[in-house]
TrEMBL record:
<feature type="transmembrane region" description="Helical">
    <location>
        <begin position="21"/>
        <end position="40"/>
    </location>
</feature>
<dbReference type="Pfam" id="PF00892">
    <property type="entry name" value="EamA"/>
</dbReference>
<feature type="domain" description="EamA">
    <location>
        <begin position="19"/>
        <end position="143"/>
    </location>
</feature>
<feature type="transmembrane region" description="Helical">
    <location>
        <begin position="129"/>
        <end position="147"/>
    </location>
</feature>
<keyword id="KW-0472">Membrane</keyword>
<feature type="domain" description="EamA">
    <location>
        <begin position="157"/>
        <end position="294"/>
    </location>
</feature>
<feature type="transmembrane region" description="Helical">
    <location>
        <begin position="187"/>
        <end position="209"/>
    </location>
</feature>
<dbReference type="InterPro" id="IPR051258">
    <property type="entry name" value="Diverse_Substrate_Transporter"/>
</dbReference>
<feature type="transmembrane region" description="Helical">
    <location>
        <begin position="256"/>
        <end position="273"/>
    </location>
</feature>
<feature type="transmembrane region" description="Helical">
    <location>
        <begin position="279"/>
        <end position="297"/>
    </location>
</feature>
<keyword id="KW-1133">Transmembrane helix</keyword>
<dbReference type="InterPro" id="IPR037185">
    <property type="entry name" value="EmrE-like"/>
</dbReference>
<protein>
    <recommendedName>
        <fullName>EamA domain-containing protein</fullName>
    </recommendedName>
</protein>
<feature type="transmembrane region" description="Helical">
    <location>
        <begin position="221"/>
        <end position="244"/>
    </location>
</feature>
<feature type="transmembrane region" description="Helical">
    <location>
        <begin position="99"/>
        <end position="117"/>
    </location>
</feature>
<feature type="transmembrane region" description="Helical">
    <location>
        <begin position="46"/>
        <end position="65"/>
    </location>
</feature>
<dbReference type="InterPro" id="IPR000620">
    <property type="entry name" value="EamA_dom"/>
</dbReference>
Length: 301
């Protein structure tokens, strides 16, 4: 019988290869574009937007990946449900607060990864604590000016739900990592084929029952573009990329790399939504990059 090679936690932690890093960066860029698509279809409800993006992504997975591994149905359903919950929270947040600030809150997923690890007895190192402190400082710097203006209640709701999205993506990265260590992690295509179509259909039915057709159907060119962008660029592509990153990178490093999402989102917001970054945004982004550097030094040691 041929010997089966089992990759341990330490082996995987050292296997920080280009594919894992590229997967995390592609995920950041793809999810950063979500704010642009959402702002192109402000009349559609969050349920409808997520439903359409899921159905389109599922169709792409069935078309492009006709053959995938079997036997990971339960895991694919669980991970798919977590992604769907994340998409719902993110769309709601982008509809209620500026793109850059929402992306930054979602980028705080490493804080939740450390929290999850602490709950099972793995306490953060001092470098991780410094990285967290810099991240929180960047969060405060970027968000503070907006909290002093008008529409504070609406913005707070968006930012709080964005933090829920951060907790969900951190949980996804952590769970996918544990499944990968046990060689039980489904691919992104398996997750999309298994969970996205039924969950998307269910969300669309709920949206149809609880809202007028104008809130459910993309009837104009911009909402159609938004749905296509959400389905292909910000759902199908990152579903594959985040699975690669989660399998090949430690959860904390994976989510920390995705702290670049706010920087991409700020650039996209500036280029496509005329949301010009302020000096506060630049300063907060510098603090976030400092946190990335501190954690990157730790990861290479």
């Amino acid at each position: 019988m041929p010997e089966m090679t089992v990759r341990t936690s330490d082996t995987l932690d050292r296997d920080i290869d280009r594919r894992g890093v590229m997967g995390a960066v592609v995920t950041s860029m793809s999810w950063a574009a979500t704010g642009v698509w959402v702002n192109l279809a402000p009349a559609l409800s969050p349920l409808a937007l997520v439903a359409w993006r899921l159905l389109l992504a599922a169709a792409l997975f069935w078309l492009l990946f006709p053959r995938v591994r079997r036997g990971f149905g339960l895991q694919a359903w669980g991970l798919g449900a977590m992604l769907v919950a994340y998409y719902l929270a993110a769309v709601f947040a982008f509809q209620h607060a500026p793109v850059g600030e929402v992306a930054l809150c979602i980028g705080c997923a490493p804080l939740f990864v450390l929290l999850y690890q602490a709950l099972i007895g793995r306490w953060p190192t001092w470098r991780e604590i410094v990285a967290v402190a810099l991240t929180l400082a960047g969060l405060v710097v970027m968000v503070w000016p907006g909290l002093l203006g008008t529409g504070v209640a609406r913005m707070w709701s968006g930012l709080l739900v964005a933090l829920v999205a951060a907790a969900l993506t951190a949980a996804y990265a952590t769970l996918h990592r544990r499944l990968a260590l046990r060689q039980r992690a489904p691919s992104g295509a398996e997750i999309g084929r298994t969970a996205f179509a039924p969950l998307g259909a269910a969300l669309l039915a709920v949206a149809w029952l609880h809202g007028p057709s104008v809130r459910v159907l993309p009837l104009e060119i911009l909402p159609v573009i938004a749905v296509i962008g959400l389905g292909i660029v910000s759902t199908a592509l990152p579903t594959v990329a985040v699975a690669v990153a989660s399998s090949r990178l430690p959860a904390f490093l994976n989510t920390l790399i995705r702290l670049t999402t706010p920087l991409f989102a700020t650039g996209f917001g500036w280029a496509f939504l005329a949301q010009q970054p302020t000096a506060w945004t630049v300063a907060g982004g510098a603090l976030i990059l400092s946190g990335l550097f501190v954690q990157g030094v730790r990861a290479r040691e």
